[in-house]
Structures are given as structure tokens and as C-alpha cells.
């Protein structure tokens, strides 16, 4: 896996060096925020390599490597992008050749980093440098920052502040932009996501605030269809866009188009990733769900601290929900129980075990992987079709409980002394 990452990093750096030969086009009203990489983006859902220009808070959330390349196909307004994700670090390059006099031909270098503050909450920062490529030798630089939180399976929230230092390129000032987004998945279903984004450029009139409503679907495995409609506060500037993507296990391709009353533009993209995706080429029931049984759990779920409280996934309820979700997912063929220093009472273990028995009745399999096993752990693991132990694992069968007996009173009554 490390070798693959190094190959992806080398390929990304090679393409970054060679990309200046690629051309791009934007119109006179060039948007320096430039977040519409394809036909669809949302601050609250974006967590791939394009997040460095959409919402830096999404950098590194998936935790593996990715290469992303997109370029226009037929539109008059085009954009070339190359992004790479390596752990919590992103590298990127965008290139533009404007037709009008607002900005000159540009090249934009970007580096970003993300950091998970707590489970479900990540912050990110990107630094970018813009250079003209027409010999005028103008350049500028600034920072973007973002936050992405996913407190539970249903809600996500994204915030971004771009062009923090309000840089200038020649006589052109690039203003700060404030953006926010909320995403909602009905009942935590990861096949449908609704998003609502808002964006305001500092110094512009309130009626120029943009609102964007979007929808993401994956009804068929590996076929992603996304669309959105955007407008200013007065509904004078309407924009429609869509994005259709097809995923293979580690490769994705797609096409997106943005349409408005003035002009339209499109882009095709391809990405290579170390994160395996659902794909239409896999049959049903070809995946396994891993459920980690680690640490102490409680019988009841934590008191909810509000809509955006962070789930700890350490209650019986959470395990029951995870098993139920795997039972109803047609793509899941079985469960891997990863048992490691699990501490639960007999009542909790019995409730979880009963739910696993219900899961098995659907014909799906269970495999238990253990490092150390006592009798209570074995009681839980015994529901599995197979139990696999680490080669240097340990068995401790000391019984489920113990009782102390006191004989001193009895011995005193019958006149027996202990020696």
C-alpha cells in the first residue's frame, strides 16, 4: 500500500510539472473561488481531493490517496484541474486562459492540510499562489480555511472562508467569500443526500447572496447522479448543473455541466483512489461489514446534546443499529466481528448476540476475529460461523462468575478447627 501511495505521489508531481502546457478558459467574470470543479459541489458533502478548493475541512477525511484530473470538453468556458490527496495533505494545480480583460492568463498552485479535531469534526487550511502566464509577472497569494462536521449518519455541516487576506492581482482585488452548507440524509441512508449551500462575497450587495439547493443519489451501485440549482436572492441569476459519475472499485469517471442564462460550461473527469467504491460491476452481497467491539459499552445511548452532538458508538443501541443496517443492506454478505478488549455485561452481550442471531437467519455469514478471549467474549463470539484468533492470542476461560463461601461459622458449631 505504501508503494502505491509513493507511485501516486510521483505521478502527481510529474503531472504538476507538465501541466503548464494544458490550456483553460474562463470568462470576464472569472470567479477566484472557482469551486465548481465539475457540475456539482457542496461544502457539507465534499471530502475527496477536490475539497481543497471547495471546503478545506474535508481534506484527509477519507484518509487514503487519490488523484483527480478534470478538463472541459466542448464548452467555451473551460477549466483544467489536477489534485492529489496523500493522507491529510492535498496538492493541486489549476490553470486558466481568460478571454477578456478582467484577469490575465493564470496558473494557481495550491497546498492544503486537514486535521480531525475530534471524531466527526475536521478543520482544514489551504495556501494558494496565483501567477500570470502572459509575461506580465503578476502574482499574489492567500489562504482559505474550512470546517466539516458529521455528527451522525443523517446530518453534515460545512463552513468555509476563502481569500482570507483579500489579496490583489495587479489592480484587481480578490474579496473574501463566506460560505456555509448543511447536508441531510433521510434516516441516515447513504444513497440519497439533500444539500443547501449559501455564499456571500464581501463587499457585494445582500441581493447577491447565492443560495444553492442540491441532491445526490446512488440508487444503482456505482452510478452517481447529482444536480443543483443556484440563484441570487432576487432570482435574477439562475444556474442549473448536473454531474453523472460511474465508479469502478478504485477508479471513477464522470461528466458535469453548468448551465445559466449567459453561457454554459462542462467538464469530464477521472480519478484514481485507494478507497474502494461501490460499483455496478459487483454483484449483490459481495461486501463484508466490519463491526468493532472494543472498550467498555453502556446499556443506554448517551444523552443527546443536540442536533450536532457527536456519536460515540459505544452503546448497545449503536451496535443494534449497525447490525440492523448490515442486515438490510443488499450489498452486505456478512459481518466481521473485530473483538478487542471488549467489556460488556452479560445482559448487553446477550442483547447484541440475539441481534446477531437474527442477522444470521437472513442467510448471511458472521466471522469473529479475536486477539484475547475470555468466557464472556467467547459467549458473544460463539454466534459466528467462524472464529479466527490472532496467532499469539490468548484464551482465558475462568468461568462466567464466582461465589465465595464462608465456612468459619459452620466449623465453629461442629467443633472443627482449620489447620
Notes on the protein architecture:
This protein has a 14-stranded antiparallel β-barrel. The protein has a four-stranded parallel beta sheet with strand order 17-18-19-20. It has a two-stranded antiparallel sheet with strand order 8-9. It has six helices and 20 strands. With 419 residues, it is mainly β. Helices cover 15% and strands 43% of the residues. A hairpin with a 2-residue loop joins strand 2 and strand 3. Helix 4 (346-360) packs parallel to helix 5 (375-381). The model is unreliable at 1-30 and 303-312 (pLDDT under 50).
Task: Explain the layout of strands and helices.
Layout: H1 2-18, H2 51-54, E1 66-71, E2 80-86, E3 89-96, E4 106-118, E5 121-132, E6 139-149, E7 155-162, E8 168-169, E9 172-173, E10 177-184, E11 192-201, E12 210-220, E13 223-232, E14 239-247, E15 251-260, E16 264-273, E17 287-296, H3 316-328, E18 332-343, H4 346-360, E19 365-374, H5 375-381, E20 386-396, H6 408-413
Parallel strand pairs: 17-18, 18-19, 19-20
Antiparallel strand pairs: 1-2, 1-16, 2-3, 3-4, 4-5, 5-6, 6-7, 7-10, 8-9, 10-11, 11-12, 12-13, 13-14, 14-15, 15-16
Q: How many β-strand stretches?
A: 20
Name the beta content range.
Answer: 35-45%
Based on helices, strands and strand pairing, what is the structural class? mainly beta
Return residue spans where pLDDT drops below 50 for at least 5 consecutive residues: 1-30, 303-312
Query: Distance between termini?
Result: 66 Å
Average pLDDT rating: 80
User: Which sheet architecture does the biggest sheet show?
Assistant: 14 strands, antiparallel, barrel
Helix content: 10-25%
Strand order of the largest sheet: 1-2-3-4-5-6-7-10-11-12-13-14-15-16
Number of helices: 6
Rg value: 27 Å
**Secondary-structure element pattern, one letter each:** HHEEEEEEEEEEEEEEEEEHEHEHEH
Shape: elongated
